[in-house]
Queue: 3 jobs
Job 1
Amino acid sequence: MIDLKALRSDPVAQRRLIDEAIRAALKAADPREAIYRRVQRIGGRLMVADRAIDLRQANRVFLVSIGKAAAAMADALIDLLDEALTAGVIVTKYGHVGDWQAPGSVQVIEAGHPVPDEHSVAGARAIENLLRDATERDLLLCAISGGGSALVTLPAEGISLADLQATTDVLLRSGATIHQLNAVRKRLDRIKGGGLVRLSGGASTLALILSDVIGDDLSVIASGPTAFDPSTFADAWRVIEEFDLADRLPESVRAHLQAGLRAAPASSTEPFERVQNVIVGSNRVAAEAAEAFARSQGFNTLLLTTFLQGEAREVGKVAAAIAREIHAVDRPVARPACVIAGGETTVTVRGPGTGGRNQELALSAAFGIEGIRDTWIAALATDGGDGPTGAAGAIVNGEFMAQARAARIDAAKYLAENDSYTFFRDLAGHTVSAGLIVTGPTGTNVNDLLLLFMF
């Protein structure tokens, strides 16, 4: 435990400690460790949760790994399977493979996120080809993590990739939640909403899942490729109506959704009777690790929630309000305090700027904590990518807004234009320690973290 009093009025040392808390959270969410914690190999068997899988009884063993953490999760499974692995396909985001090399029997494809691209379709086609002649005598191991919805896509008949890209972009800019976004995408795609199971030829399937979804809903994580899909075309159309998007959708998408509304629902749980879905890691694990680190350093801690949602700038105001309450009356925890929340906010894009939900949250919070000494608010995406930027998020303190004014940078204008990334970039060099959080691709993806530290 360090002397927290000695850190007061030392922003460089304070930022260093907060960075350690962030590293502790990311380490706890490491995909390889998540696999090894839940899966062991004993002789010719895999031990997973309460199930023993005899690899010697399988005719062939296939591996499909999709999402931002796909390479790391696959690495652990390839190690565990060793000689039992027949072949596999890994599809992940550009830059998320790093220096890792897959064995020759495993194809690796990098694709687009958050908007799918031609490699997203190629990845789905590769999975389809891998499983083309799979049977009930085979075993399919799936490693699934967030981002899979965009990274792997098989467009429904009559819908082009360009139409899917346009639809995804419209939904992302509308402020729709990940649940709402996926309710629509599952209706437009043949691999989502349990589609991967339907491609597997009845193979016994084990899916190991790193959750990036609030509440760990299996049907939502990566759009639920191995989970029974309870959503309907009516659910998808309600999203379109709620955000008034009908006139902004491509004609093919609108026609497909409308046709689905008129058709009789056809959904069966039978293909999922040979499927086991296991959550191996989540936002809660990362948040608890950050809390444990802060407590070990002498902070009074509160893990407020891992169900954080809402418009990013409004959540930023709430975070600042909590800081003001602690500053005024030492409530809900006394200083030195650390309050942690996890989840995923949204941004309704109204301006032409560049940013991400975590950077926008932090910028909004900076207004509310102005003048409160030794107070910090950090918001970051655990995958290292916050929106279409090179930052994971941002961190601000009580002196931040004064420094912006001294540099003659109008923070309110940047916020109004959804231009948080440009704001933090332009302010770099004018602040001490506060600013963008840049981690690069972390190899994991368990939603976002919000950290409030008061020394």
Note: The longest helix spans residues 11-28.
Job 2
Amino acid sequence: MPGSQPTTGFSKIKQALLALEALDIPLQGPFVTPGGQHIYVVDACLLVEAEIVELHSSGKFNAENIAAVLNEIRRHQTANINVNL
């Protein structure tokens, strides 16, 4: 039965990225760091692959939640940039 197989890391990120695409959320990447991490720019938020998968897995990538989730991430990231300047 195809649905009973465990989801691989690649297919988890693919599902999450497809969900973002379906919601018309701007997305760029992946950009690969020297350490091998994959980073994406999701509606002006910097997210590593694991964060995207976690947000999708927890149900936050849906029409009702996505705007608030990305606004909170963007606010937090902007605050950290201003503190570090």
Note: The chain has one domain: 9-84.
Job 3
Amino acid sequence: MTQQTPHTPDDSGRKYWLDAPGNVEKIFWGLVLLSVLLFLADALYHKHPYFGIEKAFGFYGVFGFCACVALILTAKIVRVLVMRTENYYAPKTEDDS
């Protein structure tokens, strides 16, 4: 039995259900539909907000989306600050003194 790594392609010829672009597109649009339905469901229950802004329609959905975008942008900036060279963990040689 051969051991597969994430970078070696599966050459056994097996097809998985996510290999078909149509299935990936169905999942994407299903998640979009679910997100819209949950956003609209915000109007169907009574809120007990602590802050006044929490009364706004869809506040938690918009806040969550903005927080996620901010997290991704922050991660991109931090990546530049902490990024190391490609051979950072390579063993030191006599030429690297």
Note: The helical segments are 21-40, 59-82.
